[in-house]
Amino acid sequence: MGTAAGSAFDTDTLRRAVEGNTGNNLLSLYADDAEIRIVDRNNQPSHPTVLHGRSQIAELLDDVYSRDMTHRLDRCVVQGDHAAYCESCEYGDGTRVLAESMVTLRDGKIADQLIIQAWDE
Q1: What's the pTM value of the predicted model, to 2 decimals?
Q2: How far apart are CA 109 and CA 5, in angstroms?
């Protein structure tokens, strides 16, 4: 994947961070004032979960990466100040989660992210 032309956003770093064992490396890819909106079965489009800033994002990542699950970055496309990627996850019991993200980049960091996720029930 590598670094996108004209952008400091490094998709190889994103892959290593997503597929790692801790959220710390992934957290380093976010701007200090980043915002994440999460849409799923429990947090529908009119009422998404919204996280503001790296401290709230860190709490989410600490929770996610403390679980018995693996993460894989399937695809990533970077165009200018935007990126989109697909992440597939699997819990130890075989339950699968699929998350699609659309991000806005600022100075090579994630400034805004929309995550749409679905999981096995």
Answers
A1: 0.89
A2: 15
